[in-house]
Amino acid sequence: MIRTIQNKYNPYLSVIILCLIFTGCNNPPPADLRFALSTAPLTLNPQLSADAVAERIVRLIYRHLVDFDANFRPIPDLATWEIKTPTQYRFTLGNNGRVFHDGSLLTAADVKATYEALRNPEIGSPYRSALHNLSKINIVNQDQIDFILTHPDPWFPSRLTHGIVPAQLIATRRNLSDHPIGSGAFSFIGRPDEGRLQLRRVTDGLILEFLEVKDPTVRVLKILRGEIDLLQGDLPPELIRYLENRPEVKLSHTQGNTFSYLGFNLRDPTTADIRIRRAIAYALDREQCRRYILGERARLASGLLPPEHWAGASSNSKIIHDPTRARELLAAAGYSPQRPLRLIYKTSNDPLRVRIATLFQRQLAQVGIQVDLRNYDWGTFYGDVRAGRFQMVSLSWVGIKNPEIFRYAFHSASLPPEGANRGYYLSPRANTLIEVAENANSLMQAAQHYRELHELLLEDLPYIPLWYEDQVAIMRDSIDGYNVATDGNYDSLATVQILKHAE
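Structure (tokenized):
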């Protein structure tokens, strides 16, 4: 079994070696910085962006009132804050990041317009539910703004992490994805053609180009030939190992917090049965996948937030591989070899994701579950997920730092389009734990409630936690200063340099 998994994909390396032999290496000095993506961003509108690539690029274009430190605690970005009363937060804008890319000044009016738009049900922002406690927004002056809450929330600043958009663009209902204007490290140039996006670095005019290159082997060939300068993520481990020995490139690697999971549609009568979800959890050998498909570049997960987060899950995985128990649960639910359970499993057509899904398909077959595996391009796949057109699906939450994710993904008030409870998990107990944690008087109290919530989610299994994936970036040896982040953000592009080698 292990040998089959390892040898099956050796053609990756054969293709690369043959292509290099017959095409040679062409590495002209770069005039800009070219970054290959496995999928293009679905939107650059910060009010609507929810896929990982879009979120990372939006961070480059826009600044936020608040960001997070290495310990996942809120820190000032555009603004500092003070608590005037338990339900009144006053934010004061600083001097940095105050000029939009069109030359206009970022003021409190822009902050108000941004957050009023996020609250507007007509816009349909997936982040609207995170602002459920916000009563009104009052402008004090052009540098200060008050957020008035319906009830105290000691963690409220951590909810204000969205890109600030010019009020005039919001008022004119301009398509923010076609020509985004922020005050971040990069300004928008354009999309020369499908699959290409160009940004300009504000400090020095460096042109950054994102290119969609779906096939991982092609991405590797392009970086070896100097056609791209940098790529990050979505590479099978054998390609990473191959690149580690190539002198043209270097790697940046760190432990990550990207949470991968198997999700269920609880409106479906089959996957609504807790016995079925538990049988699937027992049938999956996550460690086999982590070791032989992910190349040990991941940690098994027992909850959405990693153990190092102040509200994180236990570091001990509580999901075990027990095929016998899986068969017992299936039998109790009325399934047998004569009447096998059949499920539809959707994933993206990224080769690594297909390989993972194929292994899971095989593992589930071993306990009598027949899986119809369907993979789609990212736009189609994500559209089905958002619309609830799935029975079982594999996805990841990327860059999650704020425990508000629990309300966004699991609270009954966050059913689409109000939030991302796309599996329709309806639990009064979960709702209570989320609300009590949000209103706790101390970090310690909130952490305890979130730990109880993690345990409840492991019992109910609206998701099966899989792992936290490591972050790996590959770059040409001429790229200096790009350090891959724990959450996979692209922030290092703001300071990265291109070295000039001697002829």
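The first strand starts at residue 33 and ends at 37. DSSP finds 15 helices and 19 strands in the chain.
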